[in-house]
Amino acid sequence: xxxxxxxxxxxxxxxxxxxxxxxxxxxxxxxxxxxxxxxxxxxxxxxxxxxxxxxxxxxxxxxxxxxxxxxxxxxxxxxxxxxxxxxxxxxxxxxxxxxxxxxxxxxxxxxxxxxxxxxxxxxxxxxxxxxxxxxxxxxxxxxxxxxxxxxxxxxxxxxxxxxxxxxxxxxxxxxxxxxxxxxxxxxxxxxxxxxxxxxxxxxxxxxxxxxxxxxxxxxxxxxxxxxxxxxxxxxxxxxxxxxxxxxxxxxxxxxxxxxxxxxxxxxxxxxxxxxxxxxxxxxxxxxxxxxxxx
Length: 294
Prior knowledge:
11 strands; 294 residues; Tumour Suppressor Smad4; five-stranded mixed sheet
């Protein structure tokens, strides 16, 4: 199995090196390391040990290495890094690529997952077609916008763009890990990675920019599936006329659309209108009951 490691160091162009198919490839500051990164004082003569596996690359620090590396936002001294993912060690980023990733089992198409969400909603509407007018109680239903608007600008000028890109990318991976539990972290992870791509472009690192944009696009695709589920939850809550569920699902949608840009303003305003109408209806109903008891 063929495999490679891309090595990016702040202020330098990315290098690609072939990993040994069997056995260990070492990375360090100088010989006897198989891959010598001269001038990187943070590294020892031999620092990393890399062993390709079918699922990814096993990355381990030599015993005398003083600090752990970071993978998915967590410190580690040894772990399996899946193909097409990366680790950070100070100003050094290692990204691993393997032929095994190209021949991995096909994942379920996002279209299939989207159908799994949309078809139940369509069936629900068909079964309850006499109630379809209820969808327009708070005005015309607005078309949901895309999750993200234009890519954010780099927070630093050209001189500090590469450093900012590295920081934004590391933070993005840490938030992406937490994004499995909190929508806000998943959304912020994408925006940070998109900023990192812009910073890399500003610093003249087109390859790093393309890689960051590619990863961000994959994250957006996955996030889009949960976004569709949130849209379904909101619509069903509206149909049931459940103010608590409407408020909760609307708030979640607002979080999804944090970085959707100006084109999402109309839809977000409509969400607020729906919530206000439901709260007003609930208050009126409660007032009517109170008046009836008098």
